[in-house]
Amino acid sequence: MKKGVDFVDSTQKILASCCYFSIFFAPLLFPIIVYFVVPHEDVKSHAKKAFISHLLPFFCLFLVFLFVFVMNTPEQIGVLVLVAMLLFGLVNLVIFIWNIVKGVQVLANE
To answer: 74 Cβ partners below 8 Å, 6+ apart?
Structure first.
């Protein structure tokens, strides 16, 4: 969405921000429903961005499991799991904060 684009009404603004805030209650389901139900392009854009940001933790978790299965020795697995879990936690924290910030920005219409 271009910076400064006005929403038609407050309902669309609330729907767009709820796509980001849905990380609290329905991370994957809500943005998909909004994307296919709401005809407004700005709301669809926010729903798509929120959906992608909600998918990233699952992709990171897949990579963690993939790396664990690639390792051969127990020593490698132990170190890798520790490092991967720390990175996974950091990525999730960043994504969580990003969704909250984007939701507030949409409500503030920035």
So the answer is: none
What are 75's two structure tokens?
């020593």
34-56 pLDDT, tens per residue?
A: 999 999 999 999 999 999 999 99
Q: pTM of this prediction?
A: 0.78
Contacts 24+ apart (CB under 8 A), 45-49: 45/1, 46/1, 46/16, 46/17, 46/19, 46/20, 46/102, 46/106, 47/16, 47/19, 49/19, 49/102
3-state helix, strand, coil in the chain (%, to 5): 80, 0, 20
